[in-house]
Please model this.
Amino acid sequence: MTILIAGSTGFLGSYLLKSLIGNRYEVIALKRSTSNIFRIDELLEKVTFYNIDEVEILEIFRRHKINIVINTVTNYGRKDSQISSIVDTNLMFGLKLLEESVNNNVKAFINTDTLLERNINAYALSKAHLVDWMKFLSNKSNKMINIKIEHMYGPLDDENKFIYWLINQLKSNVKKIDLTSGIQKRDFIYVDDIVSAYETIIKNIDKLSNFEEIELGSGTSIEVKDFIKKIHSELSKIQTINTKLNFGAIPYRDNENMNMQANIKKLKKLNWNSKVTLKDGIKRILNKEKK
Model:
């Protein structure tokens, strides 16, 4: 089976790439010529890579018989990205990939989505628009699988994301960290569990409907405040922490969802469950940081 993965240099994409290679799939990976390859540099000779800013997607499908496409490409809009840039990445690129998947009778198009409400920000809206097109283009010959991921974390994530930012602030022993009250609940899931869910979906692809929306998380939620305290507690075992956690100092963003939790019934029916506890997941991040 040949699997094409888009976003192979990203956080999730790099973990999936390593897993697909380990499971002996023939892998075609997409990246940009300017992509930072630090997460996958040891994998470069084990798969066929294409730089999407140098080769047309149409040409890649002409050269290979692709069975499954996995799209992990994401622009979160964290670096003051213009809406047009977010849409180009999350919608237009994904739509090109989707269109060629349909045109070339790819067995399954697996998309990486978010559990955020579609109108909360430009990122969520652009992702939702791609899902609209997946539904529109779904038919009997192509399976469209949309995976809505909860709060993913693990080693090698982007340092501008909240968990890594928090760890770096605590390690630097800043005087205080201003936070919301932290009573909003989130379903935190470790990246290895996410990869195992993708593996399960691929192995059971024939059991799934033409269009499936699958929520992916641990299935339980915890207050962000408690999660932060767990990080503080585990890091305190490694070094002295004098930072004050100033809960309630900043307001919630507009339209904040106060309780996000994945419904994992569909994955359980495929005999999947998360295995990494919050405590173990945090330890793995901190142990990686020490090296």
In short: The longest strand covers residues 108-114. The first helix runs from residue 11 to 22.
